[in-house]
Amino acid sequence: MKLYTPVTCEKADRPLSLSDSVFMLGSCFADEIGRKMQAAGFDVCVNPFGTLYNASSIRSAMDRLDSDTLFTEDDCVEMGAGAGRICSFEHHSSFSRPSAGEFLQNANARLLEARGFWKKADAVILTLGTARIWCRDGRTVSNCLKRPSYEFTRRIMESEEIALALQEVMDRHPEKRFILTVSPVRHLGDGAHANSVSKARLLLAADMCRGAEYFPAFEILNDELRDYRFYADDLVHPSSSAIAVIWERFLETFAATDELDRIAANEKTARREAHRPVLR
Question: What stretches in the chain show pLDDT beneath 50?
Fold first, then answer.
């Protein structure tokens, strides 16, 4: 008797080797898988601007990586709600600092490091979280930074618009391998139906992108692991067990067979290091 519907993950034509440089941009799910890749010994750069939820912000991040510009005072924004911190609309609020100088020093240091990695990256993994975007003065923001809602407008991107934003960068970098995935994390602020509409547009957009590979993280959680025991306490994010299953499927799909033992050894070392007591 089958108790679940398995999602088929075909073995990739080319494996991702531990010697490859892998760049990751996208939602908090990208952070989760990025940490797994780092522990496994992959050469990986994960979200150097912080978590990015939509394709427009991901596109802006890749444009910034391709440019030679740094962040300046003009990019600095005072956060709202009395936070007393400075950030930019291109960053997650985790990048905020008490002063503009501190923010710029950290943001530009991360940018220069990431730009160097981007240039050498063999593969790029993009994780799309939502089709809904917030805009200010006609530009998509990565984070509203707790500022008043009247400063922003909100809309949903069409699938064609999402695909075009990604395709233009992929066409600009034929030397890089692009892997797309849709985050299984639900965005329920507007309700379950709105979340389904948003995810559907992301799935369609991923299917429209020429030359990109697709990893079915969304389908694994929603079809194969269709049970609330595979969700965290907030019933929105995948649990650690679900992340572990998706990670196993990712390795089955993309890891080189002759490197699996080495990956397992690296993960064991990472777990041991994580539990090592800090000597004071």
Answer: none
> Could you tell me which residues come within 8 angstroms of residue 31 by beta carbon, excluding any fewer than 6 positions away?
46, 47, 51
Q: What is the model's pLDDT at position 277? A: 63
- Using a 10 angstrom Cβ sphere, with 0-12 exposed, 13-18 middle and 19 or more buried, the burial of residue 208 is middle
pTM: 0.94
Q: How distant, in Å, are the alpha carbons of 55, 184, 205 from that of 107? A: 21, 29, 30
The whole-angstrom separation of Cα 162 and Cα 164 is 5
Radius of gyration, CA atoms only, the chain = 19
Amino acid at 193: H
The secondary structure of residue 79, as a DSSP letter, is: -
What's the residue count for the chain? 280
Dihedrals phi, psi of 179, to nearest 5 degrees:
-120, 125
DSSP for 111-171?
HHHHHHHHHH-SEEEEEE--SEEEEETTEEES--TT--GGG-EEEE--HHHHHHHHHHHHH
Q: Give the model confidence (pLDDT) of 128-182 as tens digits.
A: 999 999 999 999 999 999 999 999 999 999 999 999 999 999 999 999 999 999 9
Residue closest to 161 by CA, chosen among 250, 269, 69, 56: 56
Cα–Cα distances in Å, from 34 out to 27, 74, 124, 221?
Answer: 11, 31, 12, 18
Report the first-to-last Cα separation within the chain, whole angstroms.
55
pLDDT at 136: 96
Q: How far is CA 55 from CA 9, 28, 160, 230, in A?
A: 24, 14, 11, 27
Alpha helices in the chain (DSSP H): 28-40, 55-66, 100-120, 159-172, 192-208, 217-219, 240-254, 260-274
Q: What percent of the chain has pLDDT over 90?
A: 88
Question: How far is it, in rounded angstroms, from Cα 244 to Cα 62?
Answer: 29
